[in-house]
Design goal:
This protein has 93 residues and is mainly α. It has helices spanning 5-16, 23-38, 45-60, 62-69. Helix 1 runs antiparallel to helix 2 (23-38) and helix 1 (5-16) packs parallel to helix 3 (45-60). The protein is globular. The termini are far apart. Keywords: Coiled coil. Residues 33-60 form a coiled coil.
Amino acid sequence: MKDDYLEDIHDYGEYINDFEVSPFESIFMLHIRSRLKNEYEKLTNEEKKILNDYDNELRQSAHKMYEHLKLAYDFEKSNKPEDEWWWHLDRLV
């Protein structure tokens, strides 16, 4: 059975500008993105393009998302890999 990466990609995309949900729910977005990174080579070119577009949206709204997430996540204590930049939004603001 094929993983439904497109569904995960769209879920990730929906969280990017959703500041109505709790920051704890928004952290789920970061976990989705990490899973997609781990499965990146399995994504189709179209899925990679959509993911890249959503990544660009997150970078553009990094300050707002950082302010939202810092209520539930301590970016300074992040032990996530540097290449998983979404766990280090504090460095983009």
